[in-house]
Design goal:
The protein has 201 residues and is of the alpha/beta class. The protein has one domain (6-194): TIM Barrel (Alpha-Beta Barrel), CATH 3.20.20.70. The chain contains 10 helices and 9 strands. The protein has a 6-stranded parallel β-sheet with strand order 5-4-3-2-1-9. It has a 3-stranded parallel β-sheet with strand order 6-7-8. Strand 3 (56-60), helix 3 and strand 4 (78-80) form a beta-alpha-beta unit. Helix 1 crosses helix 2 (42-50) and helix 1 (15-28) runs parallel beside helix 10. The longest helix has 16 residues, at 185-200. The two termini are 20 Å apart.
C-alpha cells in the first residue's frame, strides 16, 4: 500500500462498471481501489475489479463482521472502516484480512494499538486537523501508520504524503460519481495521472 500511495474510494455495484473503473485507474498509473460497502452489489463489484489486472482491491465502509466476511469471500485484499468496531477488528485478525479501522483522536489510536493494529485510517482527516494533526499524533505514536481520508484533494495530497507516518491517502475525488455514471472512464484515467504528477512534482 505504501507503493500505491493513493487509494481511490468508489461506490460501485455494477460489475462491468467496476472493472472499467479499475482499468481506468491502472491506465492512469494507480494500482489500488477501495470499493465501499454502501450498495448491495459491492461484493460483486470487488470481484469484477480484481479482473482488471494487477490491482489491489479493498472493501470500504466495512461496519460488520458479515460485511467483512463478504469482502473476504469476494477476494478483497484489505478492508477499511470509518470507525473502530472491535468485533470486526478481531474477526479480521483471526481470518488474516488486513483491516484499517478509522480513528479521529489519540484515545482511539491508543485503543487500536491495544487491539494489535499497526495501521489505521484517519477520518475525517481534514476536519480533525489535516497534516498538522497527523504530524502531532505520529510523534506520540511512532509505531503507527496512517491512511488519512476525508477532505483530501489533488491540491493538498502532497501535504499529507509529506508526513512520514502516512502510508497512503484515500479519496473519492479520483472516481467522482458523475464520471462513473456517465461512463467517462478516460477522464478517470486523466485524474489518476494528474494525481501522480502532483505527488511527483
Amino acid at each position: 500500500m505504501r507503493a500505491c500511495r493513493i487509494i481511490p474510494v468508489a461506490t460501485l455495484d455494477d460489475p462491468a462498471t467496476a472493472c472499467a473503473v479499475a482499468s481506468a485507474l491502472l491506465e492512469g498509473g494507480i494500482s489500488c481501489i477501495e470499493i465501499a460497502f454502501r450498495r448491495p452489489g459491492a461484493a460483486e463489484a470487488i470481484r469484477a475489479a480484481r479482473k482488471a489486472g494487477d490491482i489491489l482491491v479493498g472493501a470500504g465502509t466495512v461496519l460488520s463482521i458479515e460485511q467483512a466476511k463478504a469482502a473476504q469471500e469476494a477476494g478483497a485484499d484489505f478492508a477499511v472502516a470509518p470507525g473502530t468496531n472491535e468485533g470486526v477488528v478481531r474477526h479480521c485478525i483471526e481470518v488474516g484480512l488486513p483491516f484499517f479501522p478509522g480513528v479521529a483522536t489519540p484515545t482511539e489510536i491508543d485503543r487500536a494499538r491495544e487491539l494489535g493494529l499497526k495501521v489505521v485510517k484517519v477520518f475525517p482527516a481534514a476536519q480533525v486537523g489535516g497534516p498538522s494533526f497527523l504530524r502531532a499524533v505520529s510523534a506520540t505514536y511512532p509505531d503507527v501508520g496512517f491512511i488519512p481520508t476525508g477532505g483530501i484533494t489533488v491540491e493538498n495530497l502532497r501535504d499529507y504524503l509529506a508526513v512520514p507516518a502516512v502510508v497512503a491517502c484515500g479519496g473519492s475525488w479520483l472516481v467522482p460519481a458523475d464520471l462513473i455514471a456517465g461512463k467517462q472512464f478516460a477522464l478517470i484515467t486523466e485524474l489518476a495521472a494528474r494525481a501522480l504528477e502532483a505527488v511527483a512534482a
